[in-house]
Amino acid sequence: MSFFNHLEMLPPDPIFGLVKAFQEDKNPNKADLTVGIYYNEDLKPEVLKVVKEAEKALVDLEKTKTYLPIDGDQFYLEGTLKLLFGEDLASSEGYRTYCAQSVGGTGALRVVAQTLKEFVTDEIYIPAPTWPNHLKVFKSAGLEVKTYPYYNNKSHQIEFEEMLKTISKIKEGSAILFHGCCHNPTGKDPTKQQWEELSKLILEKKLIPVFDVAYQGFGESLDEDAWAVRHFVKAGHELFACYSYSKIFGLYAERVGAVFAVTSDEKTKKILATNVKPLIRGNYSNPPKHGASIVSYVLHHEILSKSWRQELELMRVRIVNIRNEFSKLMQEKCPDRDYRYIDSLKGLFCLTGLSKEQVLKVIEDYGVYMTYGGRINLTGLNHDNIEYVTDSISKVLKQKD
Ligand SMILES: Cc1ncc(COP(=O)(O)O)c(C=O)c1O
Question: Which fold has domain 16-47+317-396?
Answer without folding.
Answer: Aspartate Aminotransferase, domain 1 (3.90.1150)
